[in-house]
Amino acid sequence: MDHGRYAALFLSESREHIGACNQHLGLLERDPGSQEAVHALFRAMHTIKGMAAMMGYAHVTELAHRSENLLDLVRAGTVTADVALIRLLTEAVDELDRGIEEAATGHDQALDFSYVLERLDTLVGPESTGASPQAPGPASAPEPAPRRPRGDRSRPVRVTVRPGVMMPGARAALALNQASGLGEVTDVTPGAQEFQQEGFDGAFSFWIETDRADEVLEEAIRSVGDIDSVTIGDAARSQGPAAGGDAVQRAHNTIRVDLRRLDALMSHVGELVVARNRLVELAAGYAGTELEEVSGRINRLVNEVQAEVIATRMTPVWQVFDRFPRAVRDLARELGKQVSLTIEGGDIEVDRSLLDEIGDPILHLLRNAVDHGIEPGADRLQAGKPEEGRLVIRCSRERDSIVVIVEDDGRGIDRDVVLAKARETGVVDDEVEELTDALLLQVLGRSGFSTATKVTSVSGRGVGIDVVLTKIRALGGSAEIQSQVGRGTTFILRLPLTLVIFRALLARVCDERYVVPMAFVAETVEYNKATRAEVHGRDSLVLRDEVLATTDLRDIVGLDGADRSMRRPCVILEVGNRRSALLVDALIGQQEVVVEQFDPPSGMPRWVSGATILADGTPALILDAAALV
Amino acid sequence: MTNVAVERVLVFEVGDLVCAVPAGVTREVISPVAITRLPGVSDVVDGLINIRGTLLTVIDGHRLLGRPANPDHEGAIVVLEVFDRVCGLRVGRLVDLVAVPADAVDGRDTLPGVDPGIVKAVGRHQDSPFVLLDLEELLRPVMGT
Amino acid sequence: MSHTVLVCDDAIFMRTMISDILTSAGFEVIGEAETGVQAVEKYQQLKPDLVTMDIVMPDMGGIDAVREICQGDPEAKVLMCSAMGQQALVVEAIQAGAKDFVVKPFQPSRVLEAVQRVLG
Questions:
Q1: Packing angle of the helix pair A168-180, C87-95 (nearest 10 deg)
Q2: Chain A residues inside the 8 Å CB shell of B145
Q3: What is the ipTM of this complex?
Q4: Which tens digit of pLDDT belongs to each residue from A507-541?
Q5: Which of A55, A274, A336, A420 has a Cα-to-Cα distance from A410 of 20 to 30 A?
Q6: CATH no. of A154-252
Q7: Touch between chain A and chain C (3+ CB pairs, < 8 Å)?
Q8: Do at least 3 CB pairs under 8 Å connect B with C?
Q9: pTM over 0.90
Q10: Long-range contacts of A376-385 (CB under 8 A, 24+ apart)
Q11: Residues A504 and A590 sit within 8 Å (Cβ to Cβ)
């Protein structure tokens, strides 16, 4: 390119536009509502931007671009042309005037517009892409193509635009036009409107009914250029046209965000939820007023923001669990054992902060299993087991919680050894004859118990289980253990999907309120003469064909048991396959609850998993359902 | 005049006992607020309070020190930070924040009727003695992990 | 015979640059337009093989011009010249009948590739 000639052209034409800008700024000052002036300013900035970009004047381009964005907002009526804005624009035009001269003489790199850019940012937002106002809102997930019957000539087609190209949506629109020229195109996913969105990544699918061969169709689509892949027919369907597109979209259509920002955001949302709860409670006293209306609206919005923020933080567990197989292999090799680790359900998603927290405890359980659970190869062969030990992590969703099962096929825990040790140290009374799974868990969970080294290698239970269990409980989760000598040990960990906010049921006993996480509430029923029964001397509740032992929350929290009505609300708790009935005095309702950190006194009862602040500002304890069933 | 080190302490009354804690471990002092009982823990623990959106375990100074509360005292909660843990100590009433010259604080000693185990030192404020509480000793059993 | 081109842009700078790129590749620039209205008039008058169209122009923008041109001649071959951040408008132009697009700042090769595709 003849750079000198273009530079001269650039300079003279930009000067003209700067002149036009100044003229229209004057007009805007006299008549701030003048659309004509705003449009003219917008066009001038746009033209300068385009020219400067072609010349490679990055700083001038940037300033013109940001000014154009601001004018676009004024044009759309989002921002009002007030005195301050006109002054800022005037300043931007002056800077641009200076910049054009400098750039044309080869000094664009030395330009610094940060002062005026900063202030433009406060009005436009630093990340603005200058998207036209016709394309508002974020891209929504593509809807799956309906599976209605189609003619024989009908085929699904999946197309992805080469990543990184400019305007993938426009490229996709071209491809779609080409396809439309060959047959009837339906079920475009995501909808063609999505193509206009700046966030669209160029992955889409559609159905086409055409006589033309697949090859012809593919060639036509590829003819628009910058097409990465075209999949037609069963191959596209087996990936699922929409689902495939969605997956690709997720892979490309992302930005990196500092985790601390997400944490801060989550923490603010937590506070927002608490404040919202308070607002809704206060507004309830003003039924029919505007306050109630506004509070209802804020309530809905906070719910949406919360759901979005939590969704943003959701991360598949494999991101942390993927390092486990290596760790297991290394440790096994070191110990001269053969151990394989399988991870099932790695796609299950949990809150990022939780994921960071559970990695270490789970790794600890795995190490224990390799070290103490899995026998040496020779012992295994002798016991009739495969030489290679098997470890499995199984992840699954269970209502609002995630279940992580850590299973080994090793020697299992020798209860006699553990029981003897427990008696010796006074952890259990002498009359305890047998360690049930629940009791075993309690014993192992005792601080310091399992760190005693003497029984470590023979008991097959490893060290530091108490640390693991404490951690899981601190995260609002629960743990179970199942162990059979010679067959292996299984830990079942249940954790909330997010650490911070969850839905809970508020229950009252006497004048105290307690919080029951909805993750563990199967249903609520009434306990009365008709539903109560005494089974094996235990007060029970008959629910359909099931008999559930009852627990009175008053007894748990140590409140006076007198004056117990025969008709009481009852919460059916469910933890895994264990269920029980919790009697309370009243159910107050459901609420979003934010777990608050605090320094607890020593000896907090097992049935407390944490505490929160209720809508009226009062602290309340969160019940640990696992300890109550 | 010799240069004498000075320690700043917060002096308060718990029942009939005048005691103090180092100002350095005192975060703030607040008026009594609604408290939520914590079942199952030591009875020296009053419960949980909410101060500006943060939960705080409150310990009853009267039970902790074995001093009956004075009904004329309006009560105050001294927020303390000891061994990396934060908790509130409910006291009868505040007396003063004073700078005590180190030579006005006797070595490990005690006053009649006070368990020497909880006393770090005895000081004087306006001619009346006070005990500088050994918070470590007092709170470790209640707030320790 | 070389292909004929109508270059539409409100900036002389851009028209010059695009004309230079196309001319040096053997195309014949037979007309220029500074506004959308002019673009439509000159298209009907000159019947060029190819049109390059800026989006933001005074007196009818590029998108409306594409729509009018393509309504009059469904075979019209229009190449959009857009700036960054205008994807929504480019998609609209394509739906109105534009055959391809380039994004400023562009390399001459990008323009020629797009032109080749449009002319088949």
A1: 10
A2: 602
A3: 0.90
A4: 999 899 999 988 788 889 988 888 888 888 888 89
A5: A420
A6: 3.30.70.1110
A7: yes
A8: no
A9: no
A10: A376/A336, A376/A337, A377/A337, A377/A338, A379/A411, A383/A486, A385/A409
A11: yes
